[in-house]
Amino acid sequence: MTAETEIPRTAGSCCSSTGSCHDGAADVQVGGVTTVYEVKGMTCGHCEGAVSEEISGIEGVTSVKAEASTGRVTVASKAPLTEDAVRAAVDEAGYELVGPA
User: Fold this and answer.
1) Residues in a beta bridge with 75
2) Most buried in the list 14, 72, 95, 99, measured by CB within 10 Å?
3) Which of 64, 73, 66, 68 shows the shortest CA–CA distance to 32?
């Protein structure tokens, strides 16, 4: 039998009142750029992971979400990315960048 233990949260704690290590506020990007690209050839979760991993390696990228079902890749970055940099990353993953969606 296990017992649940309430962990006290003190002022300045990193945990929110919901028990999460963040309350979602840190997930909001301020002052960044979000661009949606169309990528040809993604068919599954492995494809999504490969594209996301390569694009994540571009300097300034803060998050990547690839969706095989739509062929769209949403990239958040600190500043606008060059299309050449994104194209090179997508090519390295083995897919084709159609362009911004």
Assistant:
1) 35, 64
2) 95
3) 64
